[in-house]
Amino acid sequence: MKSTYKKMLAAGAVMALAGTAQAQSAGSNIVSLGWFRVMPNSSADPLTVDSINGRPVGVTRPNTGAEIETADTLGLAFTHFFTDNISGEFVIGIPPKHDVKGTGDFAQYGKLGSVRQWSPALLVKYHFFDAKTKFRPYVGLGVNYTWFSDESITNQNFVDHAFGIPGAKMSASTDSSWNPVFNIGANYAITDNWFVGLSVSYLPVSTRATLTTQAGATTIVSHTKIKIDPVVTFLNVGYRF
């Protein structure tokens, strides 16, 4: 009797780990909602003055730069399993608003402005273990398109002193780019239909920021290349249908 009871307990433990339904099998679709934390590893090249009133200058100002700060946002993902182990996923989030801080000689001004980052991504993932397994780690590789909006320089003290022209106005624009996405993570099936997941992604992203400073009849165009290279975590809850 004791032997039979032990066997029943062992069988129950195996079923609890493996589950009874193929929750992440070929043909399954999962919609996930969660929290993105976007953590840039940013740095910028020194500011280069390109032109004054259209006249080429090409002068670089040493020990100047900026960095992008960490931001949080809400994210959404749709996943389709083509096989028991291979899935495709489309990921998008509400564009996070990043503060931009000065570095080097610009560090004294603190926050220079802000920018919103749009980074939808398409990934292919390989999920380890059997489709019935509750805990399934995975690795993924994909591509994303990054662009920026609402670029603004809001620190008038910085604008006044950047080129020594009090009362000047400065605007910013940035380039967009295609970038690879490297991804690892895991899902855990709470029930046959509900999941919790955590993933970590790395995106090697950089952009050219162009600054246009206007003071009366004088127009100064300058630029810097900003490396962002964010690590992005995604803590989410998913539903299979």
From TrEMBL:
Compartments, as annotated in UniProt: Cell outer membrane
Signal peptide segment: 1-23
Principal localisation: membrane
One annotated GO biological process: transmembrane transport
GO cellular component, one term: cell outer membrane
Keyword terms of this UniProt record: Signal
Pfam families documented for this protein: OmpW (PF03922)
Entry protein name: Outer membrane protein W
Origin superkingdom: Bacteria
The keyword Signal is assigned to this record: yes
PANTHER family per the UniProt record, alphabetical: OUTER MEMBRANE PROTEIN W (PTHR36920:SF1), PTHR36920
The keyword Signal belongs to this UniProt entry's keyword annotation: yes
